UniProtKB/TrEMBL annotation:
Name the UniProt record assigns to this protein: Peptide/nickel transport system permease protein
Transmembrane segments: 12-30, 99-122, 134-161, 173-192, 227-253, 273-299
Topology with respect to the bilayer: Multi-pass membrane protein
Domain ABC transmembrane type-1: 95-296
Keywords: Cell membrane, Ion transport, Membrane, Nickel, Nickel transport, Transmembrane, Transmembrane helix, Transport
Pfam families the UniProt entry points to: BPD_transp_1, BPD_transp_1_N
Presence of the UniProt keyword Transport in the record: yes
Location within or outside the cell: Cell membrane
Main localization (coarse): membrane
Family recorded in the similarity comment: Belongs to the binding-protein-dependent transport system permease family. OppBC subfamily.
Originating species: Endozoicomonas lisbonensis
InterPro entries: BPD_transp_1_N, MetI-like, MetI-like_sf, Opp2B
Length: 308
């Protein structure tokens, strides 16, 4: 298991290098001069040129990228062009907000997705099954930003029950967490139903029923545990997606997380901040997937033996 974890951690290096090269190239070759943005539109040209030279922006692309990677390897992600703050500290000051939102969104998705998926599978082709699959289809199809705007319109503007944005108290979490968790709940519902249907048709389930074991014991003890393995995969991937993919939800609800910070940095062509945020989210997504793989070993000993 330790060798497997080390191997996966080493695989993180080429992933981060590929992501950093792609984002650095996009930020370098798109219009906009960071020196001009820092000094303002009315700054004299000689001051802009002097700052460009000081920041190393006149160096070739390869040299600038190599310098960035070398600094990042030592933990120096640079300073924001717009605020002058250290990128590393800025990201870690906002990451807890993103983590809280992603965790709550995942919990909502699990609490909805798994029970509804089990209910749908045990009552296949019933009204409950059809209704559940229709709601799951709607949940997968609805864009997050549209759902967020509709929820703001209904619960904040019209009813006045919940705040429309920002982070003041626990009530600020409700709308963005539901918005973020809806799509994942739909995916978990469909996966749980599919996995449960496959398991409850196995011979050992029929044997348990033939021996007179209570139906709730058959479902909860014998079927659910084996059906959960692919569901755990989906939950792990969804949690990683929610950490890295909360950009639109954080922007719609003005949530002070890493995603909103990254959108603001892109608007200001703040290359160090964009690079730091993207690499951090890519690393977080990869580590979450690694955690899911490790978790497999504890759910299914057969998988753990393959890592040995």
């Amino acid at each position: 298991m330790h060798n497997f974890i080390l191997k996966r951690l080493f695989q993180l290096i080429p992933v981060l290098l590929g992501v950093s090269l792609l984002v650095f190239a996009i930020m370098s070759f798109t219009p906009g001069d960071p020196a001009q943005l820092i000094l303002g539109e009315n700054a004299p040209q000689h001051a802009v040129e002097s700052l460009r030279e000081e920041m190393g922006l006149n160096d070739p692309f390869v040299m600038r990228y190599a310098r960035y990677v070398g600094n990042a390897a030592t933990g120096d992600l640079g300073r924001s062009y717009s605020s002058g703050r250290d990128v590393f500290n800025e990201i870690f000051s906002r990451f807890p907000n993103t983590l809280i939102l992603a965790t709550l969104g995942t919990l909502i998705a699990i609490l909805i997705g798994i029970p509804v998926g089990i209910l749908s599978a045990t009552r296949q082709y019933s009204f409950i099954d059809s209704g559940s699959m229709l709601m799951a289809l709607l949940g997968v199809s609805m864009p997050n930003f549209w759902l967020g705007l509709m929820m703001i319109l209904v619960f904040s503007v019209n009813l006045g029950w919940l705040p429309s944005g920002g982070y003041s108290d626990w009530s600020s979490l409700i709308l963005p967490a539901i918005t973020l968790g809806t799509g994942s709940a739909a995916i978990i519902t469909r996966m749980t139903r599919s996995s449960m249907l496959e398991v409850i048709r196995q011979d050992y389930i029929r044997t348990a029923r033939a021996k007179g074991v209570a139906e709730n014991v058959v479902i909860n003890k014998h079927a659910l545990k084996n059906a959960l393995i692919p569901v755990i995969t989906v939950i792990g991937l969804q949690f990683g997606n929610l950490i890295g993919g909360a950009v639109l939800t954080e922007t719609v609800f003005s949530w002070p997380g890493v995603g909103r910070m990254m959108v603001d940095a892109i608007r200001q062509k703040d290359t160090p901040m964009v690079m730091g945020a993207v690499m951090f989210l890519a690393a977080a997504f990869t580590l979450v997937n690694l955690l899911v793989d490790v978790l497999y070993g504890y759910v299914d000993p057969r998988i753990k033996s393959q890592y040995a």
